[in-house]
């Protein structure tokens, strides 16, 4: 019982560090790691056991956020009709896009250095989009033959929005337009 309690504390610490780091690094790519640790309520030792350097932290935030968005696709499909699940997932993807835009400088700093780590691939998001598109195609709620690559290109405008402005209304309009386009040519139910 003690070990599982320690493990759950360690997991909570890690999650808290990621949450604080996302907010801080989105505001300022060069936010000091010591400030992140302090705001997360963990000591330096705990912080560095989880994230030995800035690169590890930034890439883990990116992977974590991408994983959350990707996992939500199946959860939404289990709870909503396919077309509503797709549209709700698009909103979550917009949130991720804005968080990623806020982190863009930090990601560029760690992946742009010579010999630095490569930026993670978009595979989980692509897989989630594919899952939602196929469920909608099977339900007859979108035009047949739309690929995940087509879809991601169609919503690429999300990454042009400024995360420091009121981006939500514009993202909603953009994603509604994409959804309307996906529905055009859908078989009649």
Could you please describe the fold and organization of this structure?
- By secondary structure, the chain is an all-alpha fold.
- The chain has helices spanning 2-27, 33-40, 44-50, 54-79, 82-111, 123-139, 148-154, 168-183.
- α4 (54-79) packs parallel to α6, α5 runs antiparallel to α6 (123-139) and α5 (82-111) packs across α8 (168-183).
Topology:
Layout lengths: L1 H26 L5 H8 L3 H7 L3 H26 L2 H30 L11 H17 L8 H7 L13 H16 L6
Helix pairs in contact: 1-2, 1-4, 1-5, 4-5, 4-6, 5-6, 5-8, 6-7
Report, as a whole number of angstroms, the end-to-end distance: 54 Å
**Mean pLDDT reading:** 87
The tally of strands reads 0
Rg calculated over all Cα atoms: 19 Å
Proportion of strand residues? under 5%
What does the largest sheet look like? Answer: none
* Helix-strand string: HHHHHHHH
- Helical content (DSSP H or I, runs of 4+): over 70%
Shape: elongated
- The low-pLDDT segments are none
Please, how many helices?
8
SSE-based structural type:
mainly alpha
